[in-house]
């Protein structure tokens, strides 16, 4: 179905990774909007290479580059740059 009212970025993030995950990201010690913004940016990076289901799995999977944290946990800890770097590297490896 064609949508002429695209989903808000946060709403799309919630649709892909879930409300609980986004709520956890919003608990970041830094600006919660910045943490959610970084999560949206990471999602956009991944959407160019993988399905939404694969992207959701990536957000939940513990990663060595993130000190064995999931991207959700890393974002909640305020590690926005590290998560974006991990997303770029993972997406590049998918191509």
Can you give keywords for this protein?
mainly alpha; 0% strand; 95 residues
Describe the structure.
- By secondary structure, this protein is mostly helical.
- It has one domain (10-94).
- Helices cover 65% and strands 0% of the residues.
- The chain contains six helices and no strands.
Q: Compute the gyration radius: what is it?
A: 13 Å
Helix and strand sequence: HHHHHH
Alpha carbon gap, first and last residue: 28 Å
C-alpha geometry: globular
In short:
The protein is mainly α. It is built from six helices and no strands.
Chain-wise SSE layout:
Elements: H1 9-17, H2 19-25, H3 32-47, H4 52-60, H5 71-76, H6 80-94
Helix pairs in contact: 1-2, 1-3, 3-6
